[in-house]
Structure formats: structure tokens, C-alpha cells
Amino acid sequence: MKKYQLGEFEEVVILTIGILNNEAYSVSIKDEIESRLSRSVSMGALHTALRRLEDKGYLKSFAGEATEERAGRPKRYFEITALGKKAMVYSKATRDELWKAIPKTVLQINLGR
Amino acid sequence: MKRMEPKEAPPQFFLRFFRWYCDPKVLGYIEGDLMEVYERRLKTLGKKKADWRFILDVTMLFRPGIIRKAGSSKNLNPYSMYKSYFKIGWRNLIRNKGYSFINIGGLAMGMAVAMLIGLWIYDELNFNTYHKNYNRIARVMRTLHVNGETVSTTTLPNALGDELRTKYGNQFQQVVMAALAGDHILSASGETTLSLRGEFVESAAPEMFTLNMLQGSWSGLNDPHSILISQSAAKALFGDDNPMGKLLKIDNSDRMDVKVAGVYEDLPYNTDFHDMKFYAPFDLLFSANAWVQNVSFTNDFLNIYVAIADHTTFESASTQIKDAILNNVRENKGYVDVNPQLVLHPMKDWHLRSEWKNGVMAGGATQIVWLFGIVGAFVLLLACINFMNLSTARSEKRAREVGIRKAVGSARQQLMNQFFTESFLTVGLAFVVALVAVSTSLNWFNHLANKQIEMPWMNTYFWLASFVFILFTGLLAGSYPALYLSSFNAVKVLKGSIRVGKLASLPRKVLVVTQFTVSVTLIIGTIMVYQQIQFAKNRPVGYSRDGLLMIQMTTPDFHGKQDVLFTELKNTGAVLEMAESSSPPTAIWSENGGFDWSGKDPAYAPQFATLTVTAEYGKTIGWQFVKGRDFSENIASDSAGFVINEATAKLLGFENPVGETLRWQGGWRSKFTSFTIIGVIKDMVVKSPYAPPVPSVFFLSKYGTNWFNIRINPQTSVGEALPKIKAVFKKLIPSAPFDYKFADQEYALKFAAEERVGKLAFVFAVLAILISCLGLSGLASFVAEQRTKEIGIRKVIGASVFSLWKMLSKDFVFLMIIACLIAIPTSYYLLAAWLENYDYRAEISWWIFAVTFVLSLVITVLTVSWQALKAAMMNPVNSLRSE
């Protein structure tokens, strides 16, 4: 059993929320991912991911201000919880371990080409 | 906040679709996101692309994490909302006390009338259902062809019972012969003597009629010297003693000593046998009376009741037995000629279809049931119309309320609920008031309608019907405000740019016309019913009813004491004259054919009422002679003389009937006897006062008389005379109870049915008018209120009170006139059809319509004027200041 479950897209989202730090709401997250990773993010995928992360307890949200361009609808800001941070660290640690385990030659050969 | 330009909006359909499916918890945020992104794309990519992306986004959002869970948004507790509906509804009722009163009162009145009529109809339809074999019991009837007419009778020969049992036994479960239903004297060991109605029946009768035995059993009549008595009779005869085994004597006859073998619960009032206080064995009658023992197919005196077998129907049993008498009298030509046919009259038709015409059932109480059913429905309709009129009229005032409610966020469904709640609240309150009114007035109604109805508190159908009615009225009356007003656009209503009234008042006018048409028809109908009764009451009776006492000779003890009685009675000074007769002056107990006279058409065989009297009869009851003279004891030939009435004289066709001869071959006479007509009297109203006079012949005989007729001395009051007469009777005939009837009271009974209809029609008409007036007054005041400002301005400019009153009343008077124009021909048609039922009937005269027209006009003007004048007299300062 994995200790923390974090899918690939979910990891991207939670990392972006970390980058945005207090400025993370769905549209800014979408913009950030799109600009940094040059991939398009659908609203549906993003919101589903956000809900799942919130359900898992990695994120918490609070209502923000309503603005004119949002037709009076409030923003919903996201913040990483302690559990979320642990999951991120765990995820990074497992990757790092995997990286370390790769024989140097494999990468060198590839680089040599 | 900047208003959004229409071209900037995303595709509304998809936005709505999104709102519909999205989980309400995240709806606001995501919608905000969508809008933000859309705005941005609109600037960078243009509307078309932005729209497409928007559609794509919405479609991509349609996935499990976003779609709301089924039913998740309906978990609100609606209780507080219902509470609010009721609170607001109640406040509305309280605030408009006048309208609420009219509304609830009018509807309650209509409901109460409908309920009373409903109960009455229910009672009528359940007549005789007390008997558990109700669906299988029938009465055997015989139809005879006489003078080209088919008459039906329940009187049957005594040989028929056994004939049915032996030859047609497979058709019947039980066959019961019953005889001499009538008043009989029961005396308990010489102490208590009572005259009670009872019948001699065969022993299977208690089982067939499923009498509810409180003591003893159904088999109690197996012993010929036994009797079953009702609970009330037991109480009257024996008080609190146990009646079982007690000895009784019937009609003071030594051969009719009986022992009480059972006590049954009194039959309820809505059964045909409700007044049967005892059942005695047929065998007792058989053994005690010689004339009963002559068993033949020509000895007619009894009734036969049958319970048909399970496998057969009334129709097939009727077909089987139809010739049961004819087959046994074929050698007698006279009997074959009248072609006696038997037919079963099922118990379920005894009450509702009691009249027979030409050998088939021809209505009876059904017509009255229909009549009152329709009247009840109409009164209820009037009340409902009122209710709807007033609620719709009132609701227009609430258009602004609807606007405000909508502005602060009321959903349409909630407004509908609000209006429906109010309508149901009113109907519910009216129902409660109606229940109270009905339960308090039921006694009075029972008295009026000659019924013994009780409140059906435990009857499921009653509550079901009430529930359906409340639902129906509530929905109907509430539907206009609920469906129409709730659709108003809040902005338009608040700006005041919606004008309700012009179109909405048309259906209201139609309803007012309907209402008045019904009321006017009822008024005309009531006047006509009274007119007809009055007409019949004013009919010359042909004798004098005042102070005429009638005593039936119920026991043999009466006979042979006439002379002593007469002398003794005259000695008291309270009695003027006394005579005997076979029938009381208010009825005909015997009719006979077999008359012949010179110049008679041989094929013609008329029936005359044949009335045996003593010589003083004419003097006693006050005959009015047209020609000839009265009987005289001193003229011996009068024993072969006839006194005839005008109807007979007309039928005979003699120019001067006095002195002519009538030959009569009566039932028991084998050959013709000649009678000379000595006098012609004015027709007496003997049967129905609406029927043509019955051709009658009177002749002298000391035998076969059943009644004493006593003329009380007009110088003594009835109160003084009665005790004196009673004393004489007690002295001379101590064994018989002193039971007497007054001719005028008996005569008045002939009007009972019509008077009952008249009284009920009067009550309903008054209620209908009252309900209509209530509604009219409510509408008038509403109209006046709506035009308060207009009236104020008119007054300021200089309109007079009179012109304002005319303006406000005009519309209603116009509606009234239309209603009269519809009602008058309708009621004329209906009444003409009703009067067809009576041979002796009043004319429908034009003044009835004129009076009704004027009366309704006056009522309308008075009702409307009250409100109109109130509005017209108001100080314009007040009406113009108010907002």
C-alpha cells in the first residue's frame, strides 16, 4: 500500500499551488501550469483534481473576494495542508530514491549518444 | 456593478445546463472561474472562439466530481415555509374580516345545505338496507287489466303461498305470507291495553327480514300461540319487567291469546317496516278466523314476501311465476279476462320506485331524490361561485404583494403554495363551520324532512366525500390567484403597468349571472309549489271537517253497541250527530265493479267507490246535496237506495239521475240487485287532493262498517268534548283503547308530501338567495373599493350621491336582468313538466314571474346600494388622501 496517493496531474497541481503561495485559485493555477509546462489544462480536469486533493485532505480552501469579471462570483483560494506537504515530500523522496538507484552508466550512455 | 452587455454573455443554454448539473457546493466558484476565463478569452480570441471554448469547458466539467449528487439540494426542511404560509394566510383572513366572513360564511352555508341534502339522499338510497337479505327480498305483485288500464296491487290470494312453495320452490329460498298489517289491540293480562301496528306472518319472516333479536330467537313464531314484539312495544307493555313468556291478547279476541317468544330491536326509521311493533304467527290468524280458512285463489287479502334463491334473479323468477294465479283460475272467465300476472317488486325498489303505472315501476321517491340532489348541487355551486368570485376579486389587490415577494426572492412555486394554502385554509374553516351547522340543525331538518338521520361521524364515505370536496373547491378557488397572479413580472407589477380587471371581470360576470339564474329559478319554483298546495287546499272538500272525530272499530266489542253509544254520547251534550261507515271520510277502503244501468256501453266496466254508511252519515259529516235528498231511517225503500256523487252522476250520463236505477252485481252477490238513486252530493275530496274526484256510491247497511264518525257540538270546544266522549267509550267498551282521529288532521296529512317539498324548497331558496346576496354584496363593496379614487374625484368635480349610486348599481342590475331573462323560460318549462303530475293543478300565471322579477330586482338593488351608498357618501378628502 502506498502511504500517500498523489497522481501525476495532482502532483503538478499541488506543486503549482505551492509556487503560487496564497494566490492559488483555479484560474491562476490553470494559467501557471499552462505557462510553465506548456500544456493546456481543461477546467474540468483541474476542478476534479482540486476536489480530489481536498477530499484526500491535502488541500484546504477558503472563499475569497467576488470580482466584476467573475460576474460577482467569489474566488476560492487553496492552501496546502500539513498532510499535503508530507505527501509532496514523500513523493519527492520516492522519486529521488529511484533516481539514485539508476546506474550512472545508463544515463551516460544515453547522454553519449 | 457594471451591467453585462448582451453580446458578452456566454451561450446561455450551456450556462444553464452547467448550473443545472453542477454540485451547488462548488457552483458559485466554478461559475466564477468560467466567467473569468470567458471574459479573458473574449478579449484575446473573440466571441466565437470564446463561446466554443466555454462550451468545451462546460462539457469537460460534466464529470463525476462536479455533477451534484441526486437529491442533494432537496434536503431543506420545508416546515418553516409551511408555517409561514399558514401564518400569512391567517393574517390575511383576520385583516379582511368582512370578506372572510362573507367568504367562509357563504361557503359554509352552501356546504351545510349540500351536506344535509347528501345525508338525506344517502338515507333514501339506503332505505331498507337494514335487512341483511336486502338484495334478495321481493314483494309479489299482481297486475290486472281493468277497463283497458293495467293496475298493480300487492293484495294476493291465500292459496298462492303454498303454490309458490310447491311448484316454484327452486326459485325461492323463503316464501312468507303476511296479512292484516295494521293497528291491533294488544292487552297484557287486562291491565295495559295498547293499539300497536303489527302483522301476522309466517314463521320464516323473522329470519328473512333478519330481525335483530334481543331476546328469544327467529324461530319464535313456530308456535302458533306466540308473538314477537319490538323493544319499544315491550317497554310500553311491560315496563322494565322481563317480557319473555308474558301473556298477551290480540284484539281482545279469546281465540288470540299469545305468549311473548322474543323481543327484537325496533326497525330503523328508514325501513318500510319501521312501524311494525309486533309480528304474530299467521297460523294464529288462520285458526282464529273462519274467512281465512277458505284457501282459494280468489280469497285475496294477504301480501307475500319472497327471498329468491342464490342462483336466480328477480327477472327470471318473475317470468317463472307470472301465471301462477292465472293457471289456477282458468275456469273462471271473469278472472281470465283481467289476466292476473305476477311480478316481483325487489326490496331495493320499494321505496324509491314505489309507483306502478301500466304494470311497470314508474318512479316514486327517485324523482324527489333527483330534484333535491340537483337543488343541493346548485346551492353548493352558488357558494363555490361566490367563493371563487370573491377570492379572485380580492387577489387582484394582491398583485403588488406578489411583486414584492418576487423581488425579495420568492420562487413561483412558493407563491402558488401561498395562495393554495390560503384557499384551503378558507375552505377548511368553512367545512368546520358547516359541520357544526349541520350537526346542530339536523334535528330541525329531520323534523322537516320526516327522517331520522344521524351525523355519520364514523362513516368513511362521508369523510372521503368531504375530503374530495375540500380538495376540489380549494383547488378550483385557489387556482386563479395561484396560477395567474404568480406569473406576474415583478418589475411590471411594482411599476403598476399591469392592469388586471378588464378581462378578469368577464368570467366573474358570467358567474354572477349563473348564480342569479339559479336563485331566481328557485324562487319561482318555491312560489309555484306553494301556489299548487294552496290551490289544492282551497279545493271544495264537499263535507265539513271541523270537529269531526273518527274512531275505528278495532275489536268486535264495538259492534252492537252503536245505539247505546249514540244515546249516551248525545246525553253528554258534546255530540251532535254520530254515524257509522265502512271507510273513514278521508279514505276509500273498497272499490267495486259490476255496475249496470240503462244506456251503458256494454264494453265499459267502471269501478265505483262503494261506501257503506248508516242513515245519519250525511248529517254527521255534512253532505252538500246538489239534487235529491239524504237517506232517511223512516223510509224503508232507502235500504235499496244510492246516494251518488257528482262524478258518478256525470259518468252515468242521466239528465236527471234522481229516481234512475243502478243495477249492481257486487263481489259476493251472484245476481244483480237494483238500487234507486235518491240523491246527488257534491264531490268529496277523499283520496289525493290533486286527483280527480272518485265516482262513488253510498248505500245503507248496518254491517260491514268499520268507523264511527262523531260530529262534536260546535257549541262545546274540542278540549271539553273529548274527555266526555272518552268517558262514554270507557264505560261502554272498556276493553278497547280510546283511539280517535280528527278528520281535519287526517285531511291535512294528504298535503304532507307536497308541503314537505314546499318547505324544503323554501328553505333552499332562501339560503340560495342569501348566499347570492352575500356574494353580491362582497363584489359590490370590492368594486366600490377599487373605484374609491374615481368616486372621490367625481365627487370633487361635482357628482351627486344619486348619480354615483346609479353608476355603481347599474352593472349589477344589468346582470340581474340577464339572469331573469334566462331563469324565467327555464323555470316555466320545468314547472310545466312538474305540474303535469297533478290532475288538479294550478295555472302558471304571469304574476309569479313578474313578482319574482321585481323581488329579485329589489333584493339586488338593496344589496348593492348598501355598498354603493357607503362609497358614494364617503368624504372625498379621505378617499383621495388614502394610498
What does this molecule look like?
In chain A, helix 1 (8-20) crosses helix 2 and helix 1 crosses helix 3. Chain A is an alpha+beta fold and 113 residues long. Chain A has helices at 8-20, 26-37, 43-56, 82-101, 104-112; strands at residues 59-66, 74-80. Chain B is α+β, with helices and mostly antiparallel strands. In chain B, a hairpin with an 8-residue loop joins strand 22 (661-664) and strand 23 (673-681). In chain B, helix 14 packs parallel to helix 25 (752-786) and helix 19 (505-537) runs antiparallel to helix 25 (752-786). Classes of the chains: A alpha+beta (113), B alpha+beta (883). Chains A and B meet through helix 2, helix 3 and strand 2 of A and helix 2 and helix 3 of B. Chain A: Residues 20-88 form the Transcription regulator PadR N-terminal domain. Chain A: This is Transcriptional regulator PadR-like family protein. Chain A: Pfam families: PadR (PF03551).
Please tell me the overall pLDDT of chain B.
83
Give the tally of structural domains of chain B.
4
CATH C-level of chain A:
Mainly Alpha
The biggest beta sheet of chain B reads: 8 strands, mixed
Mean pLDDT of chain A: 85
Question: Class by helix and strand content of chain B?
Answer: alpha+beta
What is the overall number of helices of chain B? 29
The radius of gyration over CA of chain B amounts to 39 Å
β content of chain B, as a range?
15-25%
What is the spatial order of strands in the main beta sheet of chain A? Answer: 1-2
Poorly predicted parts of chain A: none
Would you tell me which CATH topology of chain A applies?
Arc Repressor Mutant, subunit A
Tell me the series of helices and strands of chain A, N- to C-terminal.
HHHEEHH
Secondary-structure content class of chain A: alpha+beta
The interface involving the most residues is between:
A-B, 24 and 26 residues
What gross morphology of chain A would you assign? elongated
Sequence stretches where pLDDT stays below 50 over 5 or more residues of chain B: 1-5
Radius of gyration of chain A: 17 Å
Cα-to-Cα separation, first versus last residue of chain A: 38 Å
InterPro entries (chain A): Tscrpt_reg_PadR_N, WH-like_DNA-bd_sf, WH_DNA-bd_sf
Pfam families (chain A): PadR (PF03551)
Protein name (chain A): Transcriptional regulator PadR-like family protein
Domain Transcription regulator PadR N-terminal (chain A): 20-88
